[in-house]
TrEMBL record:
Protein name stated in the entry: Outer membrane protein beta-barrel domain-containing protein
Region (Disordered): 24-51
Signal keyword on record: yes
Originating species: Sandaracinus amylolyticus
Keywords: Signal
Amino acid sequence: MTRIASLSLLTALVLSLAAPRASAQATPAEDAPTATATDETAPGSDTQLSDEQALLEEQTTVERRDDGIDPHEEENRDYFFVGALARALVLPSYPFEVGGVAFPNGYDVPVNGAVGAYFNYRRNGFNIQVEVFYQGMGWNGFLRGENDPIGETEYIESNLGVVYGWFGFSWSIPIADWFAIEIGLGLGVGGVVGDLYRTEAIDAAGSGSNWMPCPGPDGATGDRCETPIEMPGSNGRLDNTRQRGGTYQHITGANPFYFGEGGVPPIFATIDLPRVSFRFKPIRQIQIRVDTAFNGYGFSFGGSVGYGF
């Protein structure tokens, strides 16, 4: 074989060996798109980033719910409120009529106000409330006691009031986070303050109607404007040990305080059963109540505003 033929054969052999290598080297290039597709699901990809963002947004939403003013009340958590209250007390005639008191000129239903402050503790919907308030007990009118003769009719002017300490318990019926109905009861005991005056009364022409206060003792009126012989006994009481007669306390002084016939009781109690309240909480720190109660001798209506801490 000549030198040229040997070179030609050697060249052909080198080319035949080089061809498969080129083909093998081309495979990774052809597979490049596959690697790119795989990278889409690799850690740090757009898909996983979207999932992390969704989780982060969900956690952020939960945290925003408790923004410090949300009125929602959680279980097993204590809530405290202090505030001011105002109410009106309506005194119908029937509790007195049951006791035998007559109102010969009719009965004007008195409405007296009350103002005060309160402290409220609540947990799991159960309320304990303490109140201190002044309750007016004013009333003007004519009355006659049970079994008293018609000549014992008197004109009463009451400027009394009671300073109460009151304790109450109630249970909440939640309707919404911001609204609940509370049903409960309460007991209050207080000291009586103010003055009450009794004045002998006279009716027009002895008709038994159209009564008016006596301007003073007048013997010509019989037992209507009697002489003021109804004086306190040695114990200071206007009871059955004294001789009956006219009463003119604008002259002799206000009615004395004591327990018993003719006296003003120095201590007075009230029982609210039931008390129903409608509670509004626009935000966590503010509590507004509208309430009503029956207390045995009258009805109260009112409301309160409190601050929570």
